[in-house]
Amino acid sequence: MSALRAQPTRLVGASVIVYRALLLLYPARFRRAYGEQMRQVFQASCRRARQEGGPAALARLWQRTLGDLLLTALAERIERLELAMTQAPSALYRATGLVSLVGIVAWIIGPILLGVGLALSGSMQSSVSVMLLLLPVGWLFFVIGFIGLYAWLAKQCGWAVWIPGALAIATLLVMIVAALYWGYNSQIGVSYAGATTVVNLSQASAVNQLWDSYAYQASYLAYPALGLELIATGLLALRSQAPRAVARTLLVMGALAVVYYFFTDMGAPSLLRNTGTPGMLGMAAGALAFFGAWLIGWLRLGRWLWQAGALTPSIGVVSPSLAASE
Amino acid sequence: MGDQPGDTAATLTPAMFQILLALADGERHGYSIMREVERASEGAFLLGPGTLYRSIKQMLALGLIEESDERPDPDDDDERRRYYRITGAGRRAASQEALRLARLVSQARDRRLLEGWGSEPGPAGLGGVQ
């Protein structure tokens, strides 16, 4: 008789242990606040079920409780996720803004190291390699900056801004891969197209030459593509609540990216292309104008993102300093 | 938020309304709320611990209920239990919701949807509404 009584008691004990383990399905904050009370309620319900209907009633209780637990745990998880998504942008903007500013540093250091390396050693190879590594690192940081920028813009322009956004990010990634491919090839002495000088190209395999050509073309064609994507973004931003200055900066950066393409050795008019000093000077001027403007543009965008992260408590609210910059 | 019962009533889920009803005549702990809801609905409305405490969390945030430090019977009570009581905003929200439901029942009666149920309580939740 006592064994019969002990069995349901053990069932209750085991049920409570299992239920306590299942409480792990809830977010930690909810569990800390209500987990112990829920366990108490479930334990009391188990005792009552055992007294009133034995193991069968306990099984019915479990059936109800499991459904309740799974649905409410899912609802709590979704609520936490939504909360995290509405809170994250603040930290996201700040982090991506900072990363963008670091990208600018990488872009500035690259050419400086190239110049220093040239002055000290007279050898182009190692300095070029460093620059070819730092430039894509800068681009990569701008990709991260774009994620924060478009997340911020999407709150004010709607999700459609992610269309040019996704394309712009994809374009930047193409540029990074192409630049790294060049860097790799320059390391193994196959070619270096970045300085419009082909080194030992004749020694390279046909496949290598082909891929080098793809990388070369892709990286330059990426400039007008990126420019058009930024212009589309700027136009969307102009029609939204986003600060006008942000939209204008994007439009200028986009226009310069398109124009820069015509100053590259690929896009330059045939009169200027690789025809000695005038062609080189033209390309250098175009590069200087483009990269300079992009540095200033990113400096502004990075600062805005940083401020948006630092000063906006919720999404879509333009910080006072941003509004003042209008 | 809690001072606008009309707005808050719109956010009331059936579970929240049942909990407010259970707390309308005094403070209770979680298990007691669960039993009272079950008793009042004649077993038609069974609250699981998850729904109960998720609703409690939301109602605390809305200011419809609050935690109580008082113990109805300290000698016969588990001190780990937490008691909850309805607030003024909660009472107003429950009243608004009850009126809304009463109006719906009235419309149903006008459209003769309740014919055949007699004066006895019919489907769960309709009993008692005149």
**Alpha-beta classification of chain A:** mainly alpha
Cα-atom radius of gyration of chain A:
30 Å
Oligomer: heterodimer
Fraction of residues in H or I helices of chain B: 40-55%
Low-pLDDT runs of chain B:
1-6, 124-130
Helix fraction of chain A by DSSP (H/I, runs of at least 4): over 70%
The assigned structural class of chain B equals mainly alpha
Main β-sheet, spatial strand arrangement of chain B: 1-3-2
Number of strands of chain B: 3
Q: What is the terminal-to-terminal distance of chain B?
A: 31 Å
Overall pLDDT of chain A: 76
Instruction: Tell me the major beta sheet of chain A.
Output: none
Strand content of chain B: 5-15%
Shape of chain A: elongated
Return the string of H and E elements of chain A: HHHHHHHH
Major β-sheet annotation of chain B: 3 strands, antiparallel
Model description:
The complex is a heterodimer of chains A (326) and B (130). In chain A, 82% of the residues lie in helices and 0% in strands. Chain A has 326 residues and is mainly α. The termini of chain A are far apart. Chain B is built from five helices and three strands, in the order H-H-E-H-H-E-E-H. Chain B has 130 residues and is mainly alpha-helical. The model of chain B is unreliable at 1-6 and 124-130 (pLDDT under 50). Helices cover 49% and strands 8% of the residues of chain B. Classes of the chains: A mainly alpha (326), B mainly alpha (130).
